[in-house]
Amino acid sequence: MDATRFSVCRAQIAVIGAGHAGIEAALAAARMGCETLLFTMNLDAVGNMPCNPAIGGTGKGHLVYEIDALGGEMGRAADKVCLQSRMLNSSRGAAVRSLRQQSDRAAYRNYMKSVLETQTGLTLVQAEIVAVERKEELYTVVTRFGAEYEVDAVIVAAGTYLKADIVVGDVSYEAGPDHMLPANELSASLAALGVSLRRFKTGTPPRIHADSIDYQKCELQTGDEDPFCFSSDTEKEEFRLRPGYRCYVTYTNEQTHRIIRDNISRSPLYSGKIHSIGPRYCPSIEDKIMRFPDKDRHQLFLEPMGANTKEVYVQGLSSSLPEDVQLKVLHSIAGLENARVMRTAYAIEYDCIDPLQLRHTLEFRSLPGLYGAGQFNGTSGYEEAACQGLVAGINAAAKILGKEELILSRDSSYIGILIDDLVTKGTNEPYRMMTSRCEYRLSLRQDNADRRMMPYAKRYGLLSGKRIERKEELFRLLDAEVARVEKTYLSPSPELNALLVSHGCAPVKSGVSVAELIRRPELGYEDLKTADPTRPKLDREIRARVEIEVKYAGYIKRSLSQAQAQKKLDDKRLPEDLDYESIRGLRLEARAKLSAQKPRSIGEASRISGVSPADITVLCVYLNLL
Amino acid sequence: MPGLEPIAAVGTPFGKGALCVVRLSGEGVLEIIERVFEAKSGKLRDRVATYGILRDPVTGETIDDGILTFYKGPRSYTGEDSAEFTGHGGIVVTHAALKAFLDAGARMAKPGEFSQRAFLAGKLSLLRAEGIVDLIDAKTDAAARLARRAADGSLERKLESIAQTLTALCAELCVLIDYPDQSLSDLDEGALRARMNDCAEQLDRLLSTFSASRAVTEGVKTYLVGRPNVGKSSLFNALLGEERAIVTEIPGTTRDLLEYPLCAGRLLLRLTDTAGLRRGADKVEQIGIDRVRDALTGEEGGIVLALFDASLPAQAEDLELIAFLQNLRDHKTVIPVLTKTDLPERFDETLLAGFTKPERMSLLERPDFSELFARLERAYIEDENALLRGEVLMNLRQYDCVRRAKAAMDESKLHFTEAENDVCVTLLEEAIGELREADGREVGEAVAQEIFKRFCVGK
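Predict the joint structure of the above. Result:
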């Protein structure tokens, strides 16, 4: 029965959902000075991690660094509740180093709830939003109890709650993640506004009791001895001294695979019970066995869920098989023979949108003032959600405050790539950030996220003046040292050559700059300390960054020469009245983008995302500009 | 869609022939047809050949009878409404037919405009469109065959197949970066390196085809040098002799040297008249070096036929020429030619030891050039099979794409170490982008797709 409607208040921004996207959206909007409401269906699940108890990972680590550099909360929160910190790919080149931290899930929720509760201008409310209505320029959000809130902008960050169904074997029922109540009514209300929805699927593995695991049979995985943190605000010395928690690795085996194959008909994925699209990069164990029959084992990670709980997350064993099969599967695995399940693995289906409906600001093209963020936009992962929340929150507030909108280009950040991929290419499965999606990976690194994001952070005032000052001093020292090593020449002394040879690298015959030596693969900044007497005293972070900047300088030069080629294209003008729709050699997407943006030159056209070099050739041929 | 203005052109060569074809394309083609063509074998329908009468739209006079086929866009070569009229050949009739269509509202097509429209309509890739333009411009049979293959998409398929191999390679490296914790593939570094080298070699082979395709399509500058009376004029005349009928003079683009095209097997030689050789017998011939020295030393590539009189001992000028040629060998194909071999030989051949085996010929008899032509072909067409398959770079744009791809690959190979995985992968992606003419977004997506297809990854 519909509740009696009543008006509660007028605010500026309403955020629906207090998961990783909603939190960042609401905090950014409130911190920029907008009166902000944040609705959650359950105050005990604010910032919940219904899947991995971890923040970061490949590509995702970059996102967290960028969030922190823009003034978001995720990095600080993760550092606060970190159980183990590992820099992934530390052996593979600075550009793809990615930080991953195991997190205390309950502590993370508590931290975030407290941050939200104490934020000026932010009101945190437990309520299910059942409708979003639009009246002229304003929106009204309506709770299940009939409470109405009138706002200028709404950010939908409903995660996987919309019409969510949990599926385990042949059992399925309406439930959100962690078996919480689903949001069954909001979908229809959004559809009535003209938002088109579709269904995605994801899943999570079982949690088992730590004391039921035979760790002797598993491989130990510890964190870094000298761990990194995400946030520039984290007190590094205190962070380093914290005890690290342990993870373990075990493997499936032929027996595990046989059990799964024998019972595959009972999997809802294979019986046809689940129709929606799941992510390929995060397949269930039954998917892995069926799609890769040649692999004789699959790796599993045992990760602690928190400091004060015995729950252990079994990464790699996501499944929607019936519970009895799940038990057999678990017990077939080395170390888990007597595992006691605390939470059963499940698949979850939910409504989300096709992100092609969004602009780069994450505002719906056809519904000004309505924004989408997070898994609702068709992504997967806490970090992907958080960065979208931050961008949507900033943009909603910027629009209200009359500030410039935030559009991050692909060459600015992983966030820019993620959003550009979403809104120009779309996605047909939950989208996960990967370094392989990032063509600018050599310049978009974790280490320089602060610098890349600084202009935006300043524009929206999301960093403290003190932090900005500290960073600018750091950039100054960094630049000075990079300049010094470039112009400091060392003579080919016997001492220098002995040093070079001792690092397995060729001696020099004539004078050589310190920078040239740093660029040699065998050498690093620290290795040259004794040979470089004019070196100033700098802290560890700056020293590491000097090395990276110098080593990657060649690639930055390369992009500069590309920029010059670009300049030539800028001189080729495009007629204003050009009818792009009539040039059928242009791909559909390019035609739409060009018609909408009406670039003034070929160069400008080439920078529009969605316009490929092939399209540019078509344009040049069309205009006889080749 | 607002169409482009209608164009018309004769599709068959002008001149005597049994048939001529006039092509039309663009908006309003049907109206133009109605103005000049009266269907006799039933109503004009899409993609059905219809017999009828072609009339002058102004006077109504009958010009010709023939077959007209109308193609409704987008199911046509250009993607537009188009038509082909097949009538009777001959210069007068062909001209009149074309004029009728022009008078009825069509504009004379510019060279390559039909293919350009097809490209703009998304009907042809750039590579194929270029192939068709090259086909139209082909000056020799071999050049036409090459262009035909390009129009078939042979080069496109070759580039795509290399790009696919590189994408798979990239995926294997990227998956290690994106899923560092998972024991995914038993990465065989040696095998990866071998595949990388293989791709680099394929690119190298493609690059080397460029000189062959240029030699076939554009021709190779060919110089005859030697001291006076060695037989330059005779050889020049003998080479061009019978060909003269089909040869036209091309004013040299550089300096005032004249060039004469000559089919030498599959090569097109652009025979250069050095030092005014052709100006008449009364003028004293010069050694030729002075006049062409700049041309010979300045330009890359080309053929030099260096003539020596076999019947006399080497003269001072011969020795001077030999010394000069030593410096040219790196960037030119230098072939010594011993003339007057009908006389007793007194020339010391060991002087030519540094060069390839000399050609011997007597210009009294009609010389057989087949051996010489075969040698020149071998010098330019290194990979016979590539030429047959059409896996050949035809123009500077294509050459440049592949050159940039190769450069990125070479650099990527230098960084094939674990510590530089990031650089290696980025450069590989750059190479893929060049080969596919795609931007980073598309390449990244292709690599991600490949990872999902090939590897079992995830939580």
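The longest strand of chain B covers residues 62-71.
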